[in-house]
Design brief:
317 residues, alpha/beta, 10 helices
């Protein structure tokens, strides 16, 4: 089947079996309290699988410690032309050039309010494809305003390779203005609501200097954490464009994680993502400095088994 259609069928199947009572129990109860948030365990689902918050309850039944949904934009958009999702079965990898296809931030907020579970929820936000880069801050502010009260944390996606020029926001020319503006709005919103942490999701393709500039800006602006990392454009798949995820991303994303931990110090929150396909790769992310770990492509290829294997094999803290 086409990859994107099979993705849809799998989620619908998951919805059905969860309604029938299927559930993975977390036997170890490795609860962590970080940046003011309680995580029932350290394994989360990365953004991209549930773009609109349609599958929160059934995904929560699989035992994840937290779910990140989105990426969502101010206005609904169709994303890039199909086909835009490709499986590399032999490598256990995906290449996607989805382009932030989603139903818009208002729909996602509606879905989050309808959820029936208490699972920790992160919401990933981005800009619309037709918003000029110089106006990108307005899109992020609009989304932040709308998701702030319903999210446990907000992830600022400035690293997708599938929205033209989006990764320029990670550069020295843009990053400090973006982060300082978002931080100011976060503090304004916190005066009338709870404090909702903000995290930045970064690319695995950054140079050391680019990574250092971004990390120092995050520290200076008291951003609450970094998600390391998004997909990579360093591949030779026939589609040419798009982001690579899965096993081939593991080493480069882990190298960036280790460098990032050295820059930000031991007390700054880092969520690691990229190439986690089994318990061994999960443990290596933790060993290299991750506080929490997310999976996506590993879940696509291995199914719920990978969640059960990780959360029920990791010893208690």
């Amino acid at each position: 089947m086409p990859s994107e259609f099979s993705h849809f069928l799998a989620l619908e199947g998951l919805r059905i079996i969860s309604l029938l009572g299927f559930k993975i129990k977390d036997e170890n109860h490795n609860q962590s309290n970080l940046i003011g948030i309680s995580f029932s365990n350290k394994l989360g689902l990365a953004a991209g699988l549930d773009k609109n918050g349609d599958y929160i309850d059934c995904l929560a039944s699989l035992g994840f410690g937290f779910l990140e949904i989105g990426t969502v934009t101010p206005k609904p958009q169709k994303g890039n032309p199909k086909p835009r999702l490709f499986r590399l079965k032999g490598q256990k990898a995906l290449v996607n050039k989805m382009g932030f296809n989603n139903k818009g931030v208002d729909y996602l907020v509606f879905r989050v309010k309808k959820k029936n579970v208490g699972t920790t929820i992160g919401i990933s936000i981005g800009k619309n494809f037709d918003t000029p880069l110089e106006s990108a801050i307005d899109d992020y502010l609009m989304c932040l305003n709308k998701v702030y009260e319903v999210a446990d944390y907000v992830a600022i996606n400035i690293s997708s390779p599938n929205t033209k020029n989006l990764r320029n926001l990670q550069s020295k020319n843009y990053i400090n203005t973006l982060l300082s503006t978002l931080k100011a709005r976060q503090l304004e919103l916190a005066e009338y609501s709870k404090y909702t942490p903000i995290l930045i999701k970064i690319s695995p393709d950054m140079t050391y200097d680019e990574l250092q500039d971004l990390a120092l800006s995050a520290l200076q602006n008291n951003i609450d954490g970094i998600i390391c990392s998004n997909t990579s454009t360093q591949h030779s798949y026939f589609s040419g464009e798009g982001g690579l995820s899965g096993r081939p991303l593991f080493q480069s994303s882990t190298d960036v994680l280790e460098i990032l931990r050295g820059i930000v110090g031991k007390d700054f929150l880092i969520i690691a993502s990229g190439g986690v396909m089994d318990l061994e790769s999960y443990n290596m992310k933790i060993d290299k400095g991750a506080d929490l770990v997310q999976i996506y492509t590993g879940f696509v290829f291995e199914g719920p088994y990978i969640v059960n294997k990780i959360i029920n094999s990791v010893s208690k803290n």
